[in-house]
Specification:
This protein has 4 helices and 7 strands, in the order αββββααβαββ. The chain is of the alpha/beta class. The mean pLDDT is 85. Helices cover 27% and strands 19% of the residues. The strands form 2 sheets. It has a 5-stranded mixed beta sheet with strand order 4-3-2-5-6, covered by helices on one side. Strands 1-7 form a two-stranded parallel ribbon. It starts with 18 loop residues before the first helix and ends in an 8-residue tail after the last strand. It has a domain of 99 residues: 2-Layer Sandwich (Nucleotidyltransferase, domain 5), CATH 3.30.420.
Length: 156
């Protein structure tokens, strides 16, 4: 009889050396494929007008967007104005711009742009009222969003 007993060998331990690689690959995958939500539209998605001279905005983080369009609720008629995730009235636009300015540093305020994304069928009077409110508070950098393309139709 021997003094030493043979130890039973169990299953070898699972190697976790590649686990950090797998975790980082998953993290990288989700970072690349995830989009950041800007705004949930309460109004119908605006059908932007066509334009031939289109220029991209440089400082997208300094852009405050105002949406103009029809309500998703068909019982409500007329143009609606949406900023962030809520419907506002034309007279509330200065408060929105002042709130956006308060979030920025003094140096960034002079580079802020107000983008108006208006539906093709939006009332021009509504857009003029918005421009007037912006002019009254000295928010003079205004951008109108459009899609690239010719708006002139010719028949030959």
């Amino acid at each position: 009889m021997s003094k030493f007993k043979k130890k039973k060998k169990g299953l070898p331990a699972i190697s976790t050396a590649s686990l950090p690689d797998i975790v980082f690959m998953l993290l990288f995958f989700f970072m690349v494929t995830t989009t950041m939500r800007e705004t949930d539209l309460v109004i119908q998605k605006p059908k932007l007008p066509n334009a031939t001279e289109v220029k991209k905005l440089e400082h997208k983080s300094l852009v405050s967007t105002i949406y103009v369009g029809k309500s998703k609720d068909s019982r409500i008629s007329g143009d609606k104005i949406q900023v962030n995730d809520k419907i506002i009235d034309v007279k509330d636009i200065p408060n929105f711009i002042f709130a956006e300015r308060a979030l920025r540093s003094e140096e960034e305020v002079k580079y802020m742009t107000t983008s108006i994304k208006a539906d093709k069928g939006a009332n021009v009077g509504t857009i003029l009222d918005i421009k007037e409110q912006l002019r009254d508070i000295n928010a003079l950098k205004i951008s109108f969003s459009s899609t690239r393309g010719s708006s002139i139709k010719t028949n030959y």
